[in-house]
Specification:
The protein has 458 residues and is α/β, with parallel strands linked by helices. The chain is built from 17 helices and 14 strands. It has 2 domains: 22-51 and 311-456, Alpha-Beta Complex (Aspartate Aminotransferase, domain 1); 59-308, Type I PLP-dependent aspartate aminotransferase-like (Major domain) (Aspartate Aminotransferase, domain 2, 3-Layer(aba) Sandwich), CATH 3.40.640. It has helices at residues 22-31, 59-66, 76-89, 100-111, 125-133, 161-170, 194-207, 218-228, 237-246, 272-285, 296-308, 312-331, 349-352, 362-374, 383-386, 415-431, 448-451; strands spanning 46-47, 93-97, 117-120, 137-140, 175-181, 211-214, 250-254, 265-269, 344-348, 376-377, 379-381, 403-407, 438-442, 453-456. Strands 2-8-7-6-5-3-4 form a 7-stranded mixed β-sheet, sandwiched between helices. 50% of the residues are buried. The structure holds ligand F0G. Ligand F0G binds next to helix 4 and helix 5.
Length: 458
Amino acid sequence: MPLPIIEPFRIKSVEPLRRTTREERREILRQAKYNLFNVHARDVLIDLLTDSGTAAMSNRQWAALMLGDESYAGSESYYRLKAAVDRLTGLPHLVPTHQGRAAEKILFQLLGGPGKVFLSNTFFDTTRANIEFTGAVAVDCVAPEAADLEREAPFKGNIDLGKMAAMLAEHAGRVAACILTVTNNSAGGQPVSLQNIRDARALLDRHGIPLYLDACRFAENAYFIKLREPGHADRSALEIAREMFSRVAGATFSGKKDALANMGGFLALRDGSLAEKARNLLTITEGFPTYGGMSGRDLDAMAAGLEEVLDEDYLEYRIASTAWTARGIKAKGVPIVNPPGGHAVYVDATAWLDHLAPEQLPGQALVNGLYEHYGIRTVEIGTVMFGKRDPATGALIPAARDLVRFAIPRRVYTQTHMEYVVEAMGELGAIRRSLPGYRAVTLPDFLPHFTAEFAPIA
Ligand code: F0G
């Protein structure tokens, strides 16, 4: 047996977990209107709702908090973050924001508007919402192999260059930008290859259209490139990440993912005049340009995290531990997205809960069943999250399939916690056909999954 890849840290401070009974959880679910976003976190045993803002910070990051400079203007913390972002991205203009979607709001307010079209491998839901909110249209062009959940292709997050070319022709003169989401969260957390980034850029250059990164999980993506893309094995994750950023006009970033921070984000831009407009918008809603909606200590935690996340012992453990969980769940006979992505395991709820029709929201059924029986919180990525509605009836239009994401917070859970999740899926498998379907009772227009209310179908 080879030695296992271990968690490359030891634990200095712990946060107790609280156990609840199945009876209690049944009542909690009812009161939460069968939407786990409404459940109190203290009522969750293992929280795989998101990998966003849920990382355990290192001793170095906690120490960095004490160095936070809370000056309104010219904070030292800003300049430390600026140095970290410069070193990583080479993008000269840093606009700090309180989280990723605030950067998106600013960028798309500047680039979007009615009549405009944006292309992506797959837009994350807040990104799409921020684009559509300006009146523009967001078109996903993900590589076709992403739809084949079984296929073990290395870069299923790629943008489909053929579809992109077709969209550029169809919407000639109206495409404002292309945004590559790395890794591709909504398509299984799959990486995008460096070649795909280069090719997308070359194609866009011919049309004079800028390329941006939604860089939330840039480090995981860079490490996948190192592992899987020929010619990059001997490069450092930092070098690869730098090349990714070197190809783009800018990036939106959520520090809540690959900056190992609990809050924060930024917009980084190459073009100074666009950055100036962005700073003007920033000042109206987020704050002065040297803090942009964050406290100085949060800027420092992000600056430290941006360096730590590229530690290759960390990245090796991160990718290996997600793959370990995926293998375990798959070995229980559960259909998952293959190969597993960097930050999460995605289960095909539509296939697994084959007693439910797509209209009965199998993703919601799995999420609620897993919580009721085992206290594990996951999230649906499907019919509810995408929120496509029939204009005539207002009813949800079923997604091609409902995935359920088991997002793994960074440095938080041990292998035993994940073993509990694996065994829970095994047990749930035996009774899965007894899980009820759901119908939506109330549905807001934007980002419906956060606040929708549901009822089980008797
Ligand atoms: N882009 C991607 C690819 C994301 O995954 C997220 C957030 C954002 C943008 C927005 O960043 O939350 O800082 O405003 N994803 C979280 C998730 C919420 O659970 O996947 P934010």
